[in-house]
Amino acid sequence: MAEGTTFSGPADPRFFTRAGPFDAATLAETAGAELVLPKAGAVPEEGFVGIAPLQAAGPRDVSFLDNRRYAPLLEQTKAGLVIVAPAFADKVPAGCAALVTGTPYLAWSRVARLFHPRVPARAGVHPSACIDPTASIDPTAEIGPFVVVGAKAEIGPGCIIGSHAVVGDGVQLAQDCRIGSHVTLSHAVLGERVIILPGSRIGQDGFGFAVGPQGFETVPQLGRVVLENDVEIGANSTIDRGSVNDTVIGAGSRLDNLVQIGHNARLGRCCIVVSQAGISGSTVLEDYVTIAAQAGLIGHIRIGAKARIGAQCGVMSDIEGGADVIGSPAMPFREFFRNVAVLRKLAKKASGSAKNGSDKG
Amino acid sequence: MAEGTTFSGPADPRFFTRAGPFDAATLAETAGAELVLPKAGAVPEEGFVGIAPLQAAGPRDVSFLDNRRYAPLLEQTKAGLVIVAPAFADKVPAGCAALVTGTPYLAWSRVARLFHPRVPARAGVHPSACIDPTASIDPTAEIGPFVVVGAKAEIGPGCIIGSHAVVGDGVQLAQDCRIGSHVTLSHAVLGERVIILPGSRIGQDGFGFAVGPQGFETVPQLGRVVLENDVEIGANSTIDRGSVNDTVIGAGSRLDNLVQIGHNARLGRCCIVVSQAGISGSTVLEDYVTIAAQAGLIGHIRIGAKARIGAQCGVMSDIEGGADVIGSPAMPFREFFRNVAVLRKLAKKASGSAKNGSDKG
Amino acid sequence: MAEGTTFSGPADPRFFTRAGPFDAATLAETAGAELVLPKAGAVPEEGFVGIAPLQAAGPRDVSFLDNRRYAPLLEQTKAGLVIVAPAFADKVPAGCAALVTGTPYLAWSRVARLFHPRVPARAGVHPSACIDPTASIDPTAEIGPFVVVGAKAEIGPGCIIGSHAVVGDGVQLAQDCRIGSHVTLSHAVLGERVIILPGSRIGQDGFGFAVGPQGFETVPQLGRVVLENDVEIGANSTIDRGSVNDTVIGAGSRLDNLVQIGHNARLGRCCIVVSQAGISGSTVLEDYVTIAAQAGLIGHIRIGAKARIGAQCGVMSDIEGGADVIGSPAMPFREFFRNVAVLRKLAKKASGSAKNGSDKG
């Protein structure tokens, strides 16, 4: 490795701009937290200049504790200000101020955003972009190099379209969407503040064909993709358009990288789909469903609100709202781990020996 | 969500052109179906104007019933014409004509295509494309913006090459291929009517390396990818070229999104590989094999003709022709579900309680 | 299939250039092998012209045997020179010379590379590329069509940047990197000789959000991606940048296609991650870990050096160095297959019948 690149700590100035400094009161307000002054000393008058992890932070940095496993680092931190839950407030070192809140991760997120705000759209169309004369692009939108915008497409105020992205004929984007490099959008309607990371494919033909006398015949895919407000899609994911109805991703839902959504699937509000999971055609997720990594759902089923589907789970039938399932086929968490334990016991007994009885997996 | 986008029903005119109207006789011929006139009334003289799902169709729309679970919608439909299997012919409402056929889904597909034909190639090379002077491009082919065509590549009549696609040095496409945006083709030979959706990668180096004294050493990958006639590949899939032999996808086979095909794999005719499935290097599929979503096959095995590999199945050895397997490791469907049931029973007994006895997964 | 494309054997001249001929002594030196002259006849004076598989090779071709299952082909080969392990030296046909070595696959790799050397960078920036004036590009680097290079990015000597690739603001590449078409690099620092195949996404936002009163709120992702020397990444893979710390891929590691690496993950030296596997955020792999296809690792765990994670394995906790695990949840190989066998036996007994007793899966 190039030895000169041993930058440590977040927000390498090569890549990130930085706002500030900010004083403790401003940070407390941003965090929605109670400011507790240090037992010894005072907060720096010149304000805080950035964020850093507990072990790397200095007296003018803000840090945070979110995960109980990192609690030992708290007592040794040299951070000037630390965001913590009430349970850890008395573990904050004497020289360190605290921002105490019941939602430390959210507070941290907002403080980090204050120091590192999103770069706004740089209004204008790059001269290399290929824009159909019938497309409508708001003058405040930013259109990057080598972008293609098709006939009658509409791009709203404040949108950022990354380089090489394709906005197909008729596609609509409401305001403040951020479309990553190399994204393909076709047959799609996007709400406000939709974010798509590089390389995702939205709106292509679903996987539909009929068996004909000479082989498979493609069934025309005549629906759309609708991405509601505040949807975020990771990198290299694929969302097929509907065949007859639309494929819909509900407001506020978040999809990770390499996720597959089949035609006519419908996700409710604030669903989470983690990387490499797949949802087959015409399956419905109600609101607040979580699908963990590499899980797969067959088509034409319904997942009730707030259900949680575990990693690698294989879901072959409807799941009730609020259920916690895992395994392939899916079963309740408790049952799955009971089965695992019972089978291990039976297998040991059958082999008449406990010599393989330990594992760390 | 932008509230103005509540278009419902298929074929939003923003995205789809529409042919027609067509009279019932033409539709019957296209469908290869028997026309049954309505018990009450007649078919509209002006013909039918489009297709729609049962619950949304009007008197001048064609609809269809394919899935038994939607049968209740048939009796209430206001469609003027409906495509059904013989078993449902007497459930068609009195005012509605029927197209009766043993293959309603195929008939539907053809009728939908009649109303919404594929857009033909718009002959010509976009001025922004970067074409090697030694490449050969048929004058009837359509080459989109920012396409790169390499040295001695050959693109046949009627092909459509989407924006930003790369047709590498020497790559050959026979007639009427459709290559999506951002597709990368290298070391590849394509038959006629091959379709590749956006972002798929065809022909890159396979995953081959030898252990050398200083670490891994890449083994040169000296084969090709051959996509035979009528192959279709989904979005963001990856097909590595062969190391010594070719990687071959047989005529008429269909691959979905995010599928991985390793080097030297050979698929027969009319195989189906559903999304996120992976086939390791040098594995052979005979004809008409189906691989369901997220299944994985190790390398150097053979799957017999018409075998069906279930979702998330892990295949570690040869599978006989016609077999139906699932599970990881793969086993016959019947055995898999028997195992699941037996384990559940044993686990309940072992826990001495039936309190966890119900699940919907 | 186009019938004219029945080229057989490796290194189709449409796609591959060829060096040579080379004499047996040169090949022996390249292979690091002992040359054994044919029992009958001599090696061709004009040297050898290429490589070919055993069944296709002729008297001026070099072939090899690596996999025991192909041993019967050795005795029938018409190759003039064959690379074999000592155990097979006496099976080489009488007219054929041999290169005998304990590492035949490595020797083969080097001989194949001798005939088909990597194409070096063609120095220069394609006129269609879009280069920020503050970027620094070594004059020996090759920058392809439609490439975008951002502000203050640095591209080292001998690098090849494929068409449509994006090298984001501030990204650094040391010498001799090869970046495929359509790759996106952002917030990333690359060592020497890093190879990335087409369509991979490096450095985008990780999947991090906090639950706010109005829905999810994105947590700023303020780390980087560091790819150390000799890392190779397949096609359409995704490596998210760190949230606070960096995501690091250790020197010499190899990732296949469609692999997902979450934010803050750290891989040691010479790790292998096969296609469609996923590693969740903040998980650590020590050196020489192998992750087979479609395996998944949850976040915040540690995998010890030289551990091997089987295909489709679901890893939910730390794994000791050197362990061999498989299954979901992960367990030792031996235990997994014992469980499979015991369950099958119990299920047969429970069903009171052996009629389903045979499978090939």
Automatic annotation (TrEMBL), chains A, B, C:
Keyword Repeat: yes
GO molecular function, one term: N-acyltransferase activity
UniProt-annotated catalytic positions: 263
A GO CC annotation given for this chain: membrane
Pathway field: Bacterial outer membrane biogenesis; LPS lipid A biosynthesis
EC code: 2.3.1.191
Organism domain of life: Bacteria
PANTHER family: UDP-3-O-ACYLGLUCOSAMINE N-ACYLTRANSFERASE (PTHR43378), UDP-3-O-ACYLGLUCOSAMINE N-ACYLTRANSFERASE 1, MITOCHONDRIAL-RELATED (PTHR43378:SF2)
Name of the protein in question: UDP-3-O-acylglucosamine N-acyltransferase
Gene assigned in the entry: lpxD
